[in-house]
UniProtKB/TrEMBL annotation:
It comes from the Eukaryota. It holds the Pfam family 2OG-FeII_Oxy_3. This is Fe2OG dioxygenase domain-containing protein. Residues 1-96 form the Fe2OG dioxygenase domain. One of its GO terms (cellular component) is membrane.
Length: 111
């Protein structure tokens, strides 16, 4: 794993964004957290920017999974990490067959 400075606006995770605008094929975004907020790192909470100005905050914790639709209904940002190292694994799901990764098992078994 590498730690490099952000090159594009999309690498700058602390801006409010919509995943589907960044990655067109995304329909569902899931996140698996691999480190603990306030133990392994400071800052780095995930924040949904709710329309009524009441934000919803997720504190990353090892093994915690978050899943949400990737459209404008789920505008979000991640606070800048102030110290330590934060690990999160993004797993996306698509309903677009042309963007899907082929699954050899299903391809061979069902066809
Ligand atoms: O690491 C996270 O909690 C979310 C990152 C994110 O919003 C993204 O990669 O689009
Ligand atoms: Fe995102």
């Amino acid at each position: 794993m590498i730690n490099k400075p952000a090159k594009t606006i999309h690498d700058e995770y602390w801006h409010p964004h919509i995943d589907k605008e960044t990655y067109e094929s995304f329909h569902y975004t899931s996140l698996l957290y691999l480190s603990d907020y306030n133990k392994d790192f400071e800052g780095g909470r995930f924040i949904f920017m709710d329309k009524n100005d009441v934000n919803t905050t997720i504190e990353p914790r090892k093994g915690r999974v978050s899943m949400f639709t990737s459209g404008s209904e789920n505008l979000h940002l991640v606070e800048k990490v102030k110290s330590g190292t934060r690990y999160a694994l993004t797993v996306s799901f698509t309903c677009d067959e042309s963007a899907a990764i082929s699954d050899l098992y299903f391809t061979e078994t069902l066809n």
